[in-house]
Amino acid sequence: MNSFIRHIIVLSPTGTKKQIQFVEEKQEFNKFPTKTGRRSLSRSISQSSTDSYSSAASYTDSSDDETSPRDRTQVNSKGSSDFCVKSIKQAEFGRREIEIAEQDMSALISLRKRAQSEKPLAGAKIVGCTHITAQTAVLIETLTALGAQCRWTACNIYSTQNEVAAALSEAGVAVFAWKGESEDDFWWCIDRCVNTEGWQPNMILDDGGDLTHWMYKKYPNVFKKIRGIVEESVTGVHRLYQLSKAGKLCVPAMNVNDSVTKQKFDNLYCCRESILDGLKRTTDVMFGGKQVVVCGYGEVGKGCCAALKALGAIVYVTEIDPICALQACMDGFRVVKLNEVIRQVDVIITCTGNKNVVTRDQLDRMKNASIVCNMGHSNTEIDVASLRTPELTWERVRSQVDHVIWPDGKRIILLAEGRLLNLSCSTVPTFVLSITATTQALALIELYNAPEGRYKQDVYLLPKKMDEYVASLHLATFEAHLTELTDEQAKYLGLNKNGPFKPNYYRY
Residues of 264-277 as b/e, b for ≥16 C-beta within 10 angstroms? Predict the structure, then answer.
């Protein structure tokens, strides 16, 4: 890495000249290599582990930056070394992060207090693969308070908050994750969570399906003994349905992603706020008058479009589904094919969960200084691989922001290398994550305690009553008061006064 000195002459308030010296570093794009000599684990199972970076900036201890956590033995204050994080020294800072998150996750804390004495997860051995953030830590510590033993790893190689991983490890949770893992590290961490002497997991909490598929492929005998799987992502749920359709799913699974409290709140309201946060932090762009195309008008796309429209952007939508397309039209957006507007738009945002939504040919035709980013779960929506060619130059201009430069000088601004923007370049509202985490906790409790025969080897939605319970726990934050049905009204509607209030086929 090359550095050079720049001198700037400035005037002080008294009028004297001062010389300020800056050291600037010339950064070049580098791929993240797998450590030489380590056994390369198969990546054919999935590619979703690389679908996002970390959220906001994390505390780091630079003294440990050059050494892989796998090459160091660390011990927490209790004498345990059953973890692998960036630096256990960061635990105190991580504990403060967790305490801050708890303040806006009152519903999950309320669930913890209500059920703590009953220990509904006593005997549960949960292996988890999610983003490791302060909000996830509140969930993990809730599960342990309810009686579970937990081992945890990260679902994305850049999503871990190192200080939070350290705090969990200090508290006795076996965490194997750090920000900036190689793909080899990623699979090694999953394996360390699953394959440990004297510990047999019986529950899975997954985000993206990598952990589930790793166990299914590598440890089929362990997988068959799992009592239940809880999955929260579109990608992971899709894989579970594929296994079920093929008759290969040998354990019951709960589809949390399609629960109302996940779809409407995490996907819609969360993305409505976090899309602007991520774009503003990385590009400082003003959206008034900008032409933006949002690919996909599901709940994530709806949230993105609403936010951009409110700031005065001219928003186009692409869709394959006529129902979603009609919704976009009725909401005031023009539905187009991407090729119709590719030469004129300033920003492209993908929200489909599909692959090759934005191709190399389309990237070639975009105008100079266009912004390209992804809000879907998977990192396959933008054909980033096609941009890694000799004729194109990559220039890292700031954290998670690359300029990809064409031979004629044209450049596009690529955010997070096509990975999930809001968890890459900004933060996600803690309150919304409380809703999702409470849903996940209840799904684990339900699957673990369900009598034999209630759930077969298939994929299930969270019972409506639980969805309503999660929502009710969060109403107190807004001092909201529900109207109660009279006996006569309940009889007229054919409902129980305590719910559920809507049939399973109801669309919110």
Answer: bbbbbbbbbbbbbb
Residue identified by tokens 């799904």 is 443
Tell whether 300 is in a known binding site: yes
Tens digit of each residue's pLDDT (9 = 90 or more) over 263-297: 888 889 999 999 999 999 999 999 999 999 999 99
70-262+428-471 and 269-425 agree in CATH topology: yes
78 is in an annotated binding site: no
Instruction: Just give the CATH number of 269-425.
Output: 3.40.50.720
In tens, the pLDDT along 207-242 reads: 989 999 999 999 999 999 999 999 998 889 999 999
CA atoms within 13 A on the CB side of 57: 7
pLDDT tier, 170 (very low <50, low <70, confident <90, very high otherwise): very high
Q: Does 299 count as an annotated binding residue?
A: yes
- Tell me the C-alpha distance between 379 and 384, whole Å: 9
pLDDT higher than threshold 70 for residue 18: no
Residue 31 — very low, low, confident or very high, per pLDDT cuts 50/70/90?
very low
Is 99 annotated in a binding site? The answer is no
| Residue 255, marked binder | no
Give one word for 350, left, alpha or beta, with left for phi > 0 and alpha for psi -120 to 50.
Answer: beta
Picking from 501, 466, 429, the residue whose alpha carbon sits closest to that of residue 254 is 466
Question: Is 51 marked within a binding site?
Answer: no
449 labeled binding residue:
no
Domain boundaries, the chain: 70-262+428-471, 269-425
Q: Is 141 annotated as a binding residue?
A: no
Question: Is residue 31 a known part of a binding site?
Answer: no
Q: Is 28 annotated as a binding residue?
A: no
Q: Is 290 labeled as ligand-binding?
A: no
- 70-262+428-471, CATH topology level: Rossmann fold (3.40.50)
pTM for the whole structure: 0.81
Q: Would the annotation count 180 as a binding residue? A: no
- What does the DSSP 8-state code read for residue 385? G
125 annotated as a binding-site residue: no
